[in-house]
Amino acid sequence: MTTLPLLPPAAVACCSPVTGGILDDSQAETLARMFKALGDPTRVKLLSIIAAADDQEACVCDLTEPVGLSQPTVSHHMKLLVETGLVAREQRGRWAYFSIVPGALDALASTLASSS
Amino acid sequence: MTTLPLLPPAAVACCSPVTGGILDDSQAETLARMFKALGDPTRVKLLSIIAAADDQEACVCDLTEPVGLSQPTVSHHMKLLVETGLVAREQRGRWAYFSIVPGALDALASTLASSS
DNA sequence: CAATGGCATTGACGAACGTCGATATGTGAC
DNA sequence: GTCACATATCGACGTTCGTCAATGCCATTG
């Protein structure tokens, strides 16, 4: 079995490549929606914090202090990242743990690749 | 006249990788600024049109009709793409030719790569 | 049960964005 | 120089965005 063990969600085919022909409105909108999620310094930093965490996950309480914003604001950003499929949310007890969806960023990166 | 003397800057090392440790405010802002430029469906489509052109370049007159927007609006978007370093502008006669900066998208893609 | 703590939602505000029409700038043709 | 054309800039408009304080919801603890 040569198939990958897990993570089929956004990993393989998330969007059409930017440089692979003229995109129609739907494709352009889908891609732009993903990039827009990364178009805010706070969200970029949140992603980097989660990625740098020991177990690759973090709760809101771990995120508010590093970014210096209120809890509702951080919660708002995380919701947006979850909705775009870049981040996964898992409730464990009273805490909500956020983690970067495996392959999601790579899938986005592949839409920017020129050839290889 | 394009005010850009040369442009190797964004090609090689444009930004710090998202998943390569906690980004500071400056790094996050730089990255977000690039992604924000791709965070609009019109600009994504403009890029795809330029990339799909025969000689990898296009003037505003080639772009207004495909995106269905006014000339000032297209000009505005192109200015933004040029300012972020994703697109180069070259004036030839009465026309301004826009082309995707070689390596710019790849540099951005590399900031999203996890490892493999 | 009530109390506590973590997070989401709401409503509001100013700032930034996308779009347009009108106009300015600049280039080549006559 | 004058005209026509391609593009950029300006000013204005409605919409979206990022942020916060206040509040609500849910799970755990006593």
The count of β-strands of chain A is 3
* The CATH C-level class name of chain A: Mainly Alpha
Shape of chain A: elongated
**Low-confidence segments of chain A, ≥5 residues, pLDDT <50?**
3-12
Helix content of chain A: 40-55%
**Overall tally of domains of chain A:** 1
Approximate strand percentage of chain A: 5-15%
Please state the structural category of chain A.
Answer: alpha+beta
- What is the N-to-C succession of helices and strands of chain A? HHEHHEEH
Query: CA-to-CA gap between the ends of chain A?
Result: 25 Å
Identify the biggest protein-protein contact and residues per side: A-B, 39 and 40 residues
- CATH architecture descriptor of chain A: Orthogonal Bundle
Radius of gyration of chain A: 15 Å
CATH topology of chain A: the name is: Arc Repressor Mutant, subunit A
Largest sheet of chain A: 3 strands, antiparallel
CATH superfamily of chain A: Winged helix-like DNA-binding domain superfamily/Winged helix DNA-binding domain
Q: What's the assembly state of these chains?
A: homodimer
The overall pLDDT average of chain A reads 90
Strand order of the largest sheet of chain A: 1-3-2
Number of helices of chain A: 5
